[in-house]
Write a structure and sequence with these properties.
Helix content is about 40%, strand content about 15%. The protein is α/β, with parallel strands linked by helices. The chain has one domain: 3-Layer(aba) Sandwich (Cytosolic phospholipase A2 catalytic domain), CATH 3.40.1090.10. Strands 1, 2, 3, 4, 5, 6, 7, 8 and 9 form a nine-stranded mixed beta sheet that branches. Strand 2, helix 1 and strand 3 form a beta-alpha-beta unit. It is globular and about 65 Å long. It starts with a strand and ends with a helix. About 5% of the residues have low confidence.
Length: about 325
């Protein structure tokens, strides 16, 4: 079983060399930009000796630390379409959230197997939050799948995960971009990657006028063979489709409920990152341009990966200086 510990000061586990430590932030599907960051770093010969991740950053970091090739990791990210996305996050209404996360655990297990954090070839920690105490929890040993599942447990959507006596939720609640933990655990130089939309976007986007893809997705979903076994879902989808078609000529208000929630989360994350940086700042912060990618829009992997690669290119001289040392 993975171990959950409060963050405490300690000596770095690995001495700095001609390499960097990555702190990969949370941000839902936008976090697929981390794949592009890792790709571009490898192409430039910049070695990553350790990864500390929050939420999607913990997930991408786990696949990397486990030894998955970057080609395979990119294929995995790009394999998501909207239907696969739905299967992972289809509500089954357990206690404590909308989604139990069983399909997510199965997905993680296929890529990570039974790996344990302490035996990984690359240093690794995952960040979670104690639901009862509100404390930051650094998971630095135990089963890798369980550590990731805890770190991605977005409150209200995915159920919390119990590790030991602690009930854990998404690490973004307390530390959206864990550069301070990365420095404490593995030394420097630390390169942070922030993918929550507030990290880059300073102005609200102009409301889009493009036609929603939802009606087409709904019709495709209604044609799935397994839909016959879910009559209640079919009735709901048909009703929703009829409503959308009826309102298709009306302008959509910008501040829909999902956008309100997303914006509030961004404001909170940005403030948490700012306050932590006042204590221990990263040596470099990358902010891929992923502000337009929604929380669960994993089917937009290509955009996210390209944004991650671009962020490395924009900051390549600074990255090379950090990696080679003084």
């Amino acid at each position: 079983m993975a171990e959950a510990r409060e963050e405490t000061a300690r000596e770095p586990q690995t001495a700095p060399g001609n390499d960097i430590v990555l702190a990969l932030g949370g941000g839902g599907a936008a976090g697929l930009a981390h794949v592009g960051v890792l790709q571009a770093l490898a192409e430039e010969g910049i070695r990553v000796r350790a990864v500390v991740g929050t939420s999607i950053g913990a997930e991408i970091g786990a696949f990397y630390a486990r030894g998955m090739s970057l080609e395979e990791l990119a294929r995995l990210a790009l394999s998501f379409d909207w239907l696969q996305n739905l299967r992972l996050f289809l509500p089954d209404l357990p206690d404590g959230g909308l989604v139990s996360g069983r399909e997510i655990v199965n997905f993680l297990r296929r890529g990570l197997g039974d790996a344990r954090i302490e035996t990984l070839p690359v240093g690794y920690c995952a960040i979670a939050a104690d639901l009862e105490s509100g404390e930051q929890v650094v998971i630095d040993s135990g089963e890798l799948v369980l550590a990731v599942r805890a770190s991605v447990s977005l409150p209200g959507i995915l159920t919390p995960v119990q590790i030991g006596k602690r009930m854990l939720v998404d690490g973004g609640v307390v530390n959206p971009v864990p550069f301070d933990v990365a420095h404490a655990r593995f030394g420097g130089p630390v390169v942070a990657v922030a993918v929550h939309s507030g990290a880059r976007r300073r102005e609200l986007p102009v409301p889009s006028t493009h036609t929603s893809e939802w009606p087409g997705h709904a019709r495709e979903l209604l044609d799935q063979p397994w839909m016959a076994k879910a009559p209640a879902l079919r009735v709901w989808l048909e009703g929703r489709l009829e409503t959308i078609q009826r309102r298709s000529k009306e302008p959509e208000p910008y501040w829909t409920a999902p956008r309100v929630v997303d914006r509030v989360m961004d404001i909170t994350k940005s403030e948490l990152v700012r306050l932590r940086a006042l204590q221990v700042a990263p040596d470099l912060m990358l902010s891929p341009d992923v502000g337009a990618i929604g929380l669960l829009e994993f089917y937009r992997a290509r955009e996210a990966i390209d944004a991650g690669r671009a962020a490395v290119r924009e900051n390549l001289p600074a990255l090379q200086r950090l990696a080679t040392g003084p």
